[in-house]
Design goal:
Blueprint (H helix, E strand, L loop, with lengths): L28 H22 L10 H7 L2 H17 L13 H11 L2 H13 L5 E7 L5 E7 L10 E7 L6 H4 L3 H7 L6 H9 L1
Antiparallel strand pairs: 1-2, 1-3
Bound molecules: manganese (II) ion.
């Protein structure tokens, strides 16, 4: 997994790799503005404020997540989760689907792409409260779906995270209100499968 290094002792807010309105109508520019520009920024600022004197200064974010505890872990985990989340999207596409080795691995693990999508959305819908649904690869490259509560990330169980859906209400409430299943089902249109495949094949 690519390492995210602090610069002069501070982590930076990731830049979105697309325009704020690029994901509409699946995710509105307003939701992105709050989610990236307010929620994620707060996690970045909180972690930066907690780093001095913690003994974790100058470590990559991925190692902070493995070593931090309490509030530091929550903020570091949320930064890692959101960096993976926001960087996996692109403009909506019809018939959006993975190809190549990743598509083959999805078929092996879940039977078909359709069965995978159904299982993944179910993981997000049935996660009680706030958290994240994840597709990850284990050490043998086998794909698994997990539910992680709050700020947790699959790296904490030795998995390599590939794809995620944020089921915190801040991710969808402005656009979908209480309709989490509709939001999660719509996200398939904007997954940039080249990004996910690169995470799998690295
Ligand atoms: Mn979020």
């Amino acid at each position: 997994m690519k390492k995210t290094m602090p610069k002069e002792g501070k982590f930076e807010l990731m830049e979105l790799p697309y325009a704020p309105e690029a994901l509409e109508p699946v995710i509105s520019a307003q939701t992105l503005g709050f989610h990236h520009g307010k929620h994620l920024l707060t996690y970045v600022n909180n972690l930066n404020a907690a780093l001095p004197g913690s003994g974790l200064e100058n470590l990559p974010l991925e190692e902070v997540v493995m070593k931090a505890q309490g509030g530091m872990l929550n903020n570091a985990g949320q930064i890692l989760n959101h960096n993976l989340y926001f960087s996996q999207f692109g403009a909506p596409r019809a018939n959006n689907a993975p190809a190549g080795l990743l598509a083959d691995a999805i078929d092996v693990a879940f039977g078909s792409f359709e069965a995978f999508k159904e299982a993944f959305v179910k993981a997000g819908v049935t996660l009680f409260g706030s958290g994240w649904a994840w597709l990850s690869a284990d050490e043998q490259g086998k794909l698994v779906i997990t539910q992680e509560p709050n700020a947790a990330n699959p790296v904490q169980h030795g998995l390599r995270p590939l794809l995620t859906m944020d089921v915190w209400e801040h991710a969808y409430y402005l656009d979908y209100q209480n309709r989490r299943p509709d939001h999660l089902s719509a996200l398939w249109q904007i997954i940039d499968w080249d990004v996910v495949a690169a995470r799998y094949e690295q």
